[in-house]
C-alpha cells in the first residue's frame, strides 16, 4: 500500500491505472477509522481494481465551536487498518496542499436539502463538505465513490452534487455499520463516558420500536413524539427527531417509504442515526 501526501504524487501513482483503464474506487474520510470505514473499503474492493482512501481533517466543515483542533489524527493506526482490508493508496494531504496559501474565493452550496436536520445546527457545514469532496473528486477522478448511510444527509448532498455538476462518478451507499448492541459506529463514540456508552444504543432501539409502531398503524406524528419522549427520559438532549422521504423531502404521514432521523446529545457528544422504513401495502 502506498501513501501519498501531494496531489502530484497521487496523480503519478494513479497514472498506470488510468492508462490501463482500471476501475478506481474512492472513499473520502477524516481518519480516526472504525469498522464502518473499513466496510466502505471492503465494498470498494469488490467493485474496483484500485482503491484509494483519503485521510484529511477538513477545516472548512467545522463550525467555530466544534472540535477541529482536537479531532483525533491517527494516520499510522489508520494506515495499518487500511492495509489489512486491501486499500491500495492512502492520500493524506496537508491543509496547505488542499487549499494552498491564497484565500479561497469559490464556494459550493447545495441548497434546500441542507437547510434543516444537521444543516440547521451546523451552518456552513455542508458547504465545507461539498467543497472538499468536489476537490477530492477532481484530484482522484474515481469511477465509484463510497459513502456510509449513517451520514444520510451528507450522502444526499453528495448525490445531488454529482448529479447537478455532471460528475462522471457513481456514488455507492453502504449500509450503517453497528456495534453488537446496535449503536451506529462513529468516530465520536470514543468521546462517550462509560455510562453514556451504555445508554447510547437506546437511539437505535427506539427507532426499531418506531418502525414497528408505524407498521402497526400508529400515526407518524405520534411515533415521532414517542421517540423524542423516550430519548429525553433516557437522558438525551434531543436536537431533532424527523421523518423524510428518501430524497429528504418533508412528509406528514406514513404513506410511502420514509427515513426516520435522530440527532441527540449525550453529555457533550452529539450522536446521529437513521432508519429506513419501507411502506408495506
Automatic annotation (TrEMBL):
<feature type="binding site">
    <location>
        <position position="61"/>
    </location>
    <ligand>
        <name>beta-alanine</name>
    </ligand>
</feature>
<dbReference type="InterPro" id="IPR042176">
    <property type="entry name" value="Pantoate_ligase_C"/>
</dbReference>
<dbReference type="InterPro" id="IPR014729">
    <property type="entry name" value="Rossmann-like_a/b/a_fold"/>
</dbReference>
<comment type="similarity">
    <text>Belongs to the pantothenate synthetase family.</text>
</comment>
<protein>
    <recommendedName>
        <fullName>Pantothenate synthetase</fullName>
        <ecNumber>6.3.2.1</ecNumber>
    </recommendedName>
</protein>
<dbReference type="GO" id="GO:0005524">
    <property type="term" value="F:ATP binding"/>
</dbReference>
<keyword id="KW-0566">Pantothenate biosynthesis</keyword>
<dbReference type="Pfam" id="PF02569">
    <property type="entry name" value="Pantoate_ligase"/>
</dbReference>
<feature type="binding site">
    <location>
        <begin position="30"/>
        <end position="37"/>
    </location>
    <ligand>
        <name>ATP</name>
    </ligand>
</feature>
<comment type="pathway">
    <text>Cofactor biosynthesis; (R)-pantothenate biosynthesis; (R)-pantothenate from (R)-pantoate and beta-alanine: step 1/1.</text>
</comment>
<keyword id="KW-0547">Nucleotide-binding</keyword>
<comment type="function">
    <text>Catalyzes the condensation of pantoate with beta-alanine in an ATP-dependent reaction via a pantoyl-adenylate intermediate.</text>
</comment>
<feature type="binding site">
    <location>
        <position position="154"/>
    </location>
    <ligand>
        <name>(R)-pantoate</name>
    </ligand>
</feature>
<feature type="binding site">
    <location>
        <begin position="185"/>
        <end position="188"/>
    </location>
    <ligand>
        <name>ATP</name>
    </ligand>
</feature>
<comment type="subunit">
    <text>Homodimer.</text>
</comment>
<keyword id="KW-0436">Ligase</keyword>
<keyword id="KW-0067">ATP-binding</keyword>
<dbReference type="InterPro" id="IPR004821">
    <property type="entry name" value="Cyt_trans-like"/>
</dbReference>
<dbReference type="InterPro" id="IPR003721">
    <property type="entry name" value="Pantoate_ligase"/>
</dbReference>
<feature type="active site" description="Proton donor">
    <location>
        <position position="37"/>
    </location>
</feature>
<dbReference type="GO" id="GO:0005829">
    <property type="term" value="C:cytosol"/>
</dbReference>
<dbReference type="GO" id="GO:0015940">
    <property type="term" value="P:pantothenate biosynthetic process"/>
</dbReference>
<feature type="binding site">
    <location>
        <position position="61"/>
    </location>
    <ligand>
        <name>(R)-pantoate</name>
    </ligand>
</feature>
<keyword id="KW-0963">Cytoplasm</keyword>
<feature type="binding site">
    <location>
        <begin position="148"/>
        <end position="151"/>
    </location>
    <ligand>
        <name>ATP</name>
    </ligand>
</feature>
<feature type="binding site">
    <location>
        <position position="177"/>
    </location>
    <ligand>
        <name>ATP</name>
    </ligand>
</feature>
<dbReference type="GO" id="GO:0004592">
    <property type="term" value="F:pantoate-beta-alanine ligase activity"/>
</dbReference>
